[in-house]
């Protein structure tokens, strides 16, 4: 393993561990309510990304991105998707549904496979097909036997799946893309804060210095793992990142059950067991594909 690869693994682990631990932050600011927290996340992320991109002298990339109506239009759609994803995730934490949220991020790579087949016309491989089938059985079991439709899991998986599909096809970097997305959503976020402020319902400032400072840190919480992930993606192949990504939902699940005291029933255990086996098959297929690609390069 080269030094560059080791750095990539470290950066990827940092990103996914950070994402896995973000519920600890959102628990600290839950008094503000999901919509206010989302608004601060959008605004302070934009502030931090602006400073970061200015420091790196990448303003020309931003101008180029906004000068293309086609790219601008797709980024507007991706902005809506990421805002929905963030809002549902924040809501799930403050309402005791982090277990379901973690399930959504386990399912997400399998949703990506389905989107690739249906929209991009990619060929579904055997182990991938079995994995997708097992995920469908898990969702059906949780709905029918558990008596609860996993809407949180599916919204998170689908919104992030479509978001990834759009961003994959756009010639826009991760940081510039998120800058554009947060810039588009910021007017709505500011409008919401002004509205609740006029009704004396805003936690920011009125809630005290501690929670106000915590809300301002939302930009750091969002941007740091993104920078680490972007750096890791330049050093690692997609299959390696794909296997490391399960660190995030695993940490989410551990926090939900061991720290936040959320229920993990027998129905959850069976559903997650099916998903974990599906993840194993999916990872095995990725590993086989990676080995095959290396052999072809060697030849």
Automatic annotation (TrEMBL):
Keywords: Cell membrane, Membrane, Transmembrane, Transmembrane helix, Transport. It is a multi-pass membrane protein. It is found in: Cell membrane. The chain crosses the membrane at residues 42-59, 71-91, 103-121, 126-143, 149-166, 178-198, 204-231, 243-261, 267-288. One of its GO terms (cellular component) is plasma membrane. InterPro entries: EamA_dom, EmrE-like, RarD. Residues 7-140 form the EamA domain. It comes from the Bacteria. Belongs to the EamA transporter family. This is Chloramphenical resistance permease RarD. The lineage of its organism: Bacteria, Pseudomonadati, Pseudomonadota, Alphaproteobacteria, Rhodospirillales.
């Amino acid at each position: 393993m080269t030094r560059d690869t080791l750095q990539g693994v470290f950066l990827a682990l940092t990103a996914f561990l950070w994402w896995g631990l973000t519920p600890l932050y959102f628990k600290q600011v839950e008094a503000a309510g999901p919509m206010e927290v989302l608004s601060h996340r959008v605004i302070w992320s934009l502030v931090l990304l602006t400073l970061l991109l200015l420091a790196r002298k990448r303003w020309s990339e931003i101008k180029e991105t906004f000068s293309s109506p086609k790219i601008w239009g797709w980024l507007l759609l991706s902005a809506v998707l990421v805002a929905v994803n963030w809002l549902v995730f924040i809501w799930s934490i403050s309402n005791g549904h982090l277990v379901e949220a973690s399930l959504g991020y386990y399912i997400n790579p399998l949703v990506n496979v389905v989107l690739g087949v249906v929209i991009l016309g990619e060929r579904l491989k055997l182990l991938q097909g079995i994995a997708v089938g097992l995920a469908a059985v898990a969702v059906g079991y949780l709905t029918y036997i558990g008596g609860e439709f996993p809407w949180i899991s599916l919204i998170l998986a689908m919104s992030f799946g479509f978001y990834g599909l759009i961003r994959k096809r756009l010639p826009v970097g991760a940081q510039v893309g998120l800058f554009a997305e947060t810039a588009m959503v910021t007017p709505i976020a500011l409008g919401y804060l002004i509205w609740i402020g006029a009704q004396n319902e805003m936690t920011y400032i009125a809630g005290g210095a501690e929670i106000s400072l915590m809300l301002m840190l939302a930009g750091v919480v969002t941007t740091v793992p993104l920078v680490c992930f972007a750096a890791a993606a330049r050093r690692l192949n997609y299959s390696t990142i794909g296997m490391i990504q399960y660190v995030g939902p695993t940490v989410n699940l551990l926090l939900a059950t061991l720290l936040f005291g959320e229920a993990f029933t027998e129905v959850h255990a069976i559903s997650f067991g099916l998903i974990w086996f599906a993840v194993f098959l999916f990872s095995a297929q990725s590993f086989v594909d990676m080995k095959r690609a290396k052999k072809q390069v060697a030849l």
